[in-house]
Design a protein that fits this description.
The structure holds two protein chains of two kinds. Chain A has a single domain (about 95-335), classed as MetI-like fold. Chain A has 15 helices and no strands. Chain A has helices at about 1-30, 40, 50-60, 65-75, 90-125, 130-145, 145-160, 170-175, 185-215, 220-225, 230-240, 245-270, 275-280, 285-315, 315-334. Chain A starts with a helix and ends with a helix. Chain B has a domain at about 160-365: MetI-like fold. Helices cover about 60% and strands about 15% of the residues of chain B. Chain B has helices at about 10-45, 50, 155-190, 195-210, 215-220, 230-260, 265-270, 275-285, 290-310, 325-330, 335-340, 340-365, and strands spanning about 75, 80-95, 100-120, 125-135. A four-stranded antiparallel β-sheet of chain B has the order 1-2-3-4. The longest helix of chain B has about 40 residues, at about 10-45. Chain B is globular. Classes of the chains: A mainly alpha, B alpha+beta. At the A-B interface, helix 1, helix 7, helix 12, helix 13 and helix 14 of A face helix 4, helix 5, helix 9, helix 11 and helix 12 of B.
């Protein structure tokens, strides 16, 4: 029952957000003026009549609210229009790219989690140990290395040791046919590593602090007094108690992963949504851009929802206390 | 036996503990201090970029495109050592692989405080003094000193990188200030207003926070013409960052306001008959300054990185104006990257050091 309410709540919120963002984009379009045919109208070979005709074909001569309404109507039915740049349905362009980006993101999340858990547990076990101190240094370095910088360094190293066989063109020329490429496992591992490093720092800091705090609690002392193995104390009791903020942070990190994938995919030439969004903005392809925003935002919201559900499954207190928690909050608000 | 030792074991432990505590205190203070030093030097670098840069960022050496960094010698071709370092003139021998060979006939010594293009120091003092360069020579064909080599159009990479700091270090802090101002105002408003308005504002903030920033900025950017003048690009980027960045600050400020309004000293102030406005400005805002400041230090690198990313993608600051982002775009040329990785990635190093500096300040504030 509660979960149903949560899902409904989130669904409404997602739809509202998407509505606001797409409306704003359309409104800004009006404020800025100009459209995809601007470059064409500068071309002396295209007469004004031709441009006008093309505007009519694309529906660009309609007033903005009408365009927005028409676009919305089609999108609700699952038809996101046609890309100006690729001359193909947006939805058909998006889905293979979405799969690629999700593959990359999942690999990055897996890497970040596994490294963060291993190092974090090692660090939390003994405060002030060498593992703890090196973790601190790793967190500082990893969290202040921007993905842009890291991706370029990786690119430089890859070109130095000729690890990747890039085509002659960059992401732009390959964007049209993402499937047709030489596949090498490094082609996905390198961008995934770059995507994972800042995430790893975030998770590592959280694991270390959370587990360290949990190890001070009474139930850990009881578990130890019972004679449980240290491994069980750590993983069954301390980690479980420290899991809540980890799940929340996982949810919040998804937006960052999507933002990061734009730059990482462009630099390291991975045919995902991020690289596609760069093409879309450079060619001012509004239907494609809107489609990307919608699908990315939906993916992020879905991830947040998943995090919320996991949170409620992990922690019975949240389920029980929900009603009480609310009333306390409302007192605080007044 | 015991008398041999100056320090009794008990005293030793306390001393060691004190020493450790002092070290920890120093480590935290040192972070803040180092971070602030880094930020200060970046401010000086941006302010004195014209003085530090040896050449005009637009000046081209057409015969020296994509040159590697200049080789600075102390020892000449005959094996004689010189007190003053010098360079040789270079000539491109293979345009395809961008191979340069040095002309060993004449040395061109380096000098500090040389005369170059004229500029206004701090916007007031007109001067043509530069920190370093080649010693003045009467010859017209004197080569130029390219510490980081030249870009594809034969412009000095070092000068461009130094001048580039201005755009980034103006846009990011300005967006940070405006976004936090907006966020604090909205947060306080939400904290003081009725439930429906509070809920509405926070829902919007939640939605903004969940959205992937760069994708939304790109989408908004798609609405504007691709080519923009630096001033318009700056204003546009600041506006976009403020429009998206306020949410996190608002959420934080609202939480702080709600928590502080419950505190006894606020109730006491209220019972003394202070107006709500006075309570807000005298009691609540000063007490929430620390978390807000920390949040600001988290926003600054995010904005800087978004700006460089957009410039890298060609939709932020654009050529011929130099930006760290659009300079890094030269790294797309993989053969050039293979040949001159350090020259091409120098702006990335600056970005890294800046982010590290902000991060150190942030850590120092958090752990104080």
């Amino acid at each position: 029952m509660f979960l149903l309410k949560l899902i409904l709540n989130r669904l409404v919120q997602t739809l509202m957000t998407l509505l606001i963002v797409t409306t704003l984009t359309f409104a800004m379009l009006a404020a800025a003026g100009g459209d995809v045919l601007n470059t064409l109208s500068a071309d002396p070979l295209a007469s004004a009549a031709t441009v006008q005709q093309m505007r009519h074909i694309y529906g660009l001569d309609q007033p903005l609210p009408v365009r927005y309404w028409r676009w919305l109507e089609h999108t609700v039915r699952g038809d996101m229009g046609e890309s100006f740049y690729y001359h193909a349905p947006v939805s058909r362009l998006l889905f293979p790219r979405l799969l690629n980006t999700m593959m990359l993101a999942l690999l990055a999340l897996f890497m970040a989690w596994s490294v963060a858990l291993t190092l974090g547990m090692m660090a939390a076990r003994r405060v002030g140990s060498w593992a703890d101190r090196s973790c601190e240094a790793i967190i500082l370095l990893a969290s202040s290395t921007p993905r842009l910088v890291l991706a370029l360094v990786v690119l430089a190293l890859a070109s130095q040791f000729s690890l990747l066989n890039f085509g002659s063109g960059a992401a732009l020329s390959k964007a049209a046919n993402p499937v047709n490429r030489s596949s090498s496992w490094l082609q996905i591992v390198l961008p995934a590593v770059v995507l994972a490093v800042p995430l790893m720092a975030l998770f590592l800091a959280q694991v270390r602090d959370g587990v360290r705090q949990a190890l001070r609690e009474d139930f850990v002392m009881v578990a130890r007094a019972k004679g449980l193995r240290e491994r069980d104390v750590l993983f069954r009791h301390a980690l479980r108690a420290a899991l809540n903020p980890l799940i929340t942070i996982f949810g919040y990190s998804l937006g960052g992963v999507m933002s990061g994938s734009v730059i990482v995919e462009t630099i390291l030439d991975w045919p995902g949504l991020g690289a596609l969004s760069v093409v879309a903005v450079q060619s001012r392809d509004v239907p494609l851009m809107l489609g990307i925003v919608i699908i990315t935002a939906t993916a992020v919201f879905a991830g947040n929802l998943l995090a919320d559900i996991l949170l409620h499954l992990n922690d019975p207190r949240l389920r029980q206390n929900d009603q009480r928690h609310r009333s306390v909050q409302s007192v605080a608000t007044r | 036996m015991n008398g041999k030792f100056f320090v009794t074991p008990k005293f030793a432990t306390t001393l060691r503990q004190r020493f450790k505590a002092a070290l920890a205190w120093l480590a935290i203070r040192a972070r803040l201090a180092i971070g602030l030093c880094i930020l200060l030097s970046f401010a000086l670098l941006a302010g004195g970029a014209d003085f530090l840069a040896p050449y005009d960022y637009r000046a081209q050496s057409r015969m020296e495109p994509a040159a590697p960094r200049a080789a600075i010698h102390w020892q000449d071709a005959e094996g004689n050592w010189h007190l003053r370092p010098f360079i040789y003139a270079r000539k491109i021998t293979d345009p395809l692989t961008r191979t340069y060979t040095e002309d060993l006939a004449k040395r061109y010594p380096l000098a500090l405080l040389t005369r170059g293009y004229s500029y206004k120091l701090c916007g007031l003092l007109s001067t043509n003094l530069h920190l370093f360069g080649l010693q003045e020579s009467d010859q017209n064909s004197a080569p130029r000193l390219y510490i980081l080599g030249t870009d594809a159009l034969g412009r000095d990479r070092l000068s461009r990188m130094l001048l580039a700091s201005r755009f980034s270090l103006l846009v990011a802090p300005l967006s940070m200030l405006l976004a936090s101002l907006l966020g604090i105002v909205i947060g306080c408003l939400a904290g003081y207003s009725r439930r429906w308005l509070d809920a509405l504002l926070m829902r919007v903030a939640d939605a903004m926070m969940a959205l992937p920033v760069l994708v939304v900025v790109l989408a908004a950017r798609a609405a504007f013409p691709l080519a923009l003048s630096p001033a318009r690009a700056g204003v546009l980027l600041v506006a976009l960052f403020v429009a998206i960045g306020w949410a996190e600050m608002a959420r934080l400020a609202r939480g702080e306001v709600l928590a502080l309004r419950q505190r006894d000293f606020v109730t006491a102030a209220y019972s003394l008959g202070m107006t709500q406005r006075r309570i807000l400005f005298r009691h609540i805002l000063p007490n929430m300054s620390r978390p807000l400041l920390i949040q600001m230090t988290l926003m600054l690198p995010a904005f800087l990185l978004n700006e460089t990313a957009l410039s890298y993608l060609g939709v932020g600051l654009q050529e011929p104006e130099p930006g760290w982002g659009n300079m890094l775009a030269a790294a797309n040329d993989l053969t050039l990257l293979q040949a001159q990785p350090f020259e091409l990635l120098a702006p990335a190093l600056l970005i890294f050091v800046f982010v590290l500096g902000v991060r150190l300040v942030s850590d120092g504030l958090q752990n104080r």
